[in-house]
Amino acid sequence: MPEVYNRRMRFTRVLGVAVLAAALSTSAVPRAQQVDTWPRFRGPQARGIAEKQGLPEAWDGVAGKNVRWKVEVPGLAHSSPIVWGDRLFLTSAVSSDAKATFKPGLYGEGTASEDKSEQRWIVLAIDRRTGKTIWERTAYQGTPNVYVSSRPGRAPELVTNASNFIRGYDPDTGKELWRLGGSSKITAPTPVFTDDFILVASGRRDEKPIFVLTPGSRGDLTLPAGKTSSDRVVWSKRGRGPYMPTPLIYDDIAYVLGNDGIFDAYDLATGREIYRERIPHSGSGFSASPVAADGHIILSSEDGDMFVVAAGDAFSIVGKNPMGEPLMATPAIAGGTLYVRGEKHLFAIGAAR
Fold first, then answer.
1. Phi and psi torsions of 127, nearest 5°
2. Taking a C-beta distance cutoff of 8 angstroms, is the pair 309, 47 a contact?
3. Helix 3-10 and helix 12-26, axial crossing angle in degrees, nearest 10
4. Which site among 113, 216, 286, 322 is 20 to 30 Å from 341 CA-CA?
């Protein structure tokens, strides 16, 4: 199994522990107290958006510009940090092989990980203001042996992005409500949604589809050959889906980042292509998902650079910010701070106070 995909699968179990704990706490906390949290992968409702943050447009993880703190993280992982209260939760896998490292790029070197040594999967609680580790727990220790998205509100649906078929289930009973064929054989991006649309994509060739459909569907939604839409599938595209990064819906525009750095913007309601541009990265590509704040979209590259792109109809790169190490985890945003997980360090980025 390719190294990038292999390591992602390894950390799912531990990441779920931290996410589940935060999710269970959400129901007991008034909404007014949740604006300063990032309680799961890609934040509240997995939208990847946090407004009124006042983040800087420029920073430097090497020189320290607008870096509030930087701490070393044990082990290797590219699970994303989550923020709850005054703590930041992070998972990692500590290998007994001192030479363990990432293999950047879509498939790394095209070979499975050779690290079959005993691993220690850990959960860290970190003080979000100082970066100091509050506690560390081992969730599992041993040798290496489906992500779903739910849509809250009326006609609840559990949407899964899986091989060959995308499916919707009744979360109370597990009954399949609908299925949509034409997906890739390997799927990684998380389904995302608004009140009116569900967007699901995957990037393995040859399909590489993007589907936008309406909630409340029933039955087989698979499109006939040659068709790109139906009464339930609002629009679809082949050959445009991302392999690893989850798409971003921001102000009625769907942004899709390919591992190769191709960045697309589509009108969410119609599928009209707004632009298709290439992010000028150094070569390793992108695994982290885009996040957005205050009219800016942040893209983290495996080369160690973070690009800031203006949201909207016109493509414009606002800045390119070096971090000094590979970036594969999706950042978290909370309390006016951008939390960035690199290969070896966790950074807190924010404007000077």
1. -65, 115
2. no
3. 40
4. 113
73-128 pLDDT, tens digit each: 999 888 999 999 999 999 999 988 777 776 666 655 545 456 667 889 999 999 99
Verify that 31 and 126 share a domain, yes or no. yes
Q: Distance (Å, rounded) from C-alpha 42 to C-alpha 251?
A: 16
State the pairing for strand pair 273-278/262-267.
antiparallel
Of the residues 265, 283, 301, the one at which a domain ends? 283
Query: Residue 299 is which amino acid?
Result: L
Order of strands across the sheet that contains 198-201: 192-193, 198-201, 210-213, 233-237
What is the residue range of 18's domain? Answer: 3-49+76-142
Task: State whether 128 and 160 are in the same domain.
Answer: no
pTM of the model: 0.85
What's the CA angle centered on 234, arms 230 and 238, to 5 degrees? Answer: 90
306 is a domain residue:
no
Sheet-wide strand order for 332-334: 67-72, 345-349, 337-341, 332-334
Distance, in Å, from the CA atom of 336 to the CA atom of 330, rounded to the nearest integer, reads 17
What is the count of structural domains for the chain?
2
What does the pLDDT look like over 134-175, one tens digit per residue?
999 999 898 765 444 555 445 789 999 998 899 999 999 999
Q: What phi, psi does 6 have (nearest 5°)?
A: -60, -50
